[in-house]
Structures are given as C-alpha cells and as structure tokens.
Design a protein that fits this description.
Keywords: Iron, Iron storage, Metal-binding, Oxidoreductase. With 179 residues, the protein is mostly helical. It is built from five helices and no strands. Helix 1 runs antiparallel to helix 2, helix 1 runs antiparallel to helix 3 and helix 3 packs antiparallel against helix 4.
Amino acid sequence: MTTSTPSNFVRLLGEQVRHEFTASQQYIAIAIWFDDQDLPRLAERFYAQSVEERNHAMMMVRYMLDRDWGVEIPGVDAVRNAFDKPAEPISLALAQEKNVTEQCEALFRAARDEGDVLSEQFMLWFLKEQVEEVSSMNSLLTITERAGEDWFQIEEHLARENQSEPADSSAPEAAGGAL
C-alpha cells in the first residue's frame, strides 16, 4: 500500500466508492418500497440495479488495489425510504444517475489533468455505462409518468421489456468478483 499523498484522482475515486455504495443502498430502499407496493417487476429492476452499483464500487476497489493505492471502505450516506407514488423513486434514481455521471466526468478530467492515462482509460467504461444508465432511467420515468395512476401499466411495460443483458466483457474486474 502506497503511503504518499494521494492524487486528486485517487481521492475522488475513494469518494466515488462511497457514492456507488450509497447508490446501491438507495436502490435497495427503492426496491423494497416497490416490493411493499406489490410491484414485483419494479422491485426486481431496482434490486438488480442495487447489485450493479455494488459491483461498480467493487470494480473501483479492484482498480485501486491493482494500482497499489490505499483502499478504505467508507460508510454510506442516508437514503430515502418513503415515497407516495412510483414516479418519486424513479425521479430520485434518475437524478442520482445524472449526479454519478457528473462525478465520473470529474474523475476522468482529474485523470487527464494528472496525465494518468491508465485511470483515464479506466473511467471511459464508467462514462459509457452512465450514458446507458441515464437513458434507461429516463425512459422508465417517461413510462411511469404516462401510466399515471395505473401503476400496473409500468409492470406490464417491464414484463414486455427485455431486462436480461449479456455480460459486458469490457467491464473492469470487481474485487471479489461481480455478483
């Protein structure tokens, strides 16, 4: 483990690990709310999203380990658990994904500013992933808003949508393996 003062990129990446774990917990809270509302497909989508965010955090941890940078696993920020209608947690998720995109952009810029081409390359995968995440959440919010008070239309949409994605062979390795 390196003992020198971490670069701005390393500091931001450590913070991003916290953001990813927090996102994972937020998605669990959202999934549980949907589960409690008897909306199993929405719950399933957000349970899976929670695992994906956890995997992102562990990819970052693996990268830090591989670069011989110190790794500290942080606690997570508070999450919201109560909602009134499906558009609320999905809006929260969309805002969260947009925020993560900004964080990933800042990480990429920090790597570029520091001349760290390895970290710049590492962050490209996350930037590509964020385009997909924001687009997906934006579409889900649009469907949810169109459904209005008929929440089961959202469930029907998700039942028709192909939710299984092939594994991305270009994804960084996750510490301990992806779930």
